[in-house]
Amino acid sequence: MLAATSSADITPPIGVIAQGHFPAGPTHSIHLPLELRTIVFAQDDRRIAIVTLDIIGIEREHTSRIRRQIEQQTDIPGDCVLIAC
After folding, report:
1. What is the pTM (predicted TM-score) of this model?
2. Where are the beta strands (DSSP E) in 1-85?
3. Could you tell me which of 53, 49, 57, 52 has the C-alpha nearest to residue 75?
4. pLDDT tens digits for range 48-80
C-alpha cells in the first residue's frame, strides 16, 4: 500500500463574514490560516482519498462538485473520496 499527503491554504480574504464566531462580522485579521489536508491511499489499481477542511461544514452540492472534480482530474472515483469538516 502507498500513501501520500498534501495540504493547501484555504483562508478566505480579510473582510468576509466568518461563520461560527459571535458576533459574526467581517474579519479584520487572520489569527491562523485555514487549511485543506488530503491523504490518498493506493493499492494495486484502487485509490481512496480523505479530504479534511478547516471549516464548520459544507453543503452536499459542494461535496458532490468536489468529488466530481477530483474524479475528473485523478484516477480516484468520486465515491472513494471522503470529505470531512
Report:
1. 0.83
2. 2-9, 35-43, 46-53, 81-84
3. 49
4. 999 999 998 899 999 999 999 999 999 899 999
Q: How far is CA 52 from CA 8, 55, 59, 79, in A?
A: 11, 9, 14, 16
Strands 2-9 and 35-43: antiparallel
52 within 8 A of 29, measured Cβ to Cβ? no
pLDDT grade for 37, boundaries at 50, 70 and 90: very high
* Other residues' Cβ atoms within 10 Å of the Cβ of residue 70: 21
What values do phi and psi take at 57, rounded to 5?
Answer: -170, 175
Q: How buried is 81 (Cβ within 10 angstroms: 0-12 exposed, 13-18 middle, 19+ buried)?
A: buried
Indicate the DSSP class of residue 34: -
CA 54 to chain centre: 8
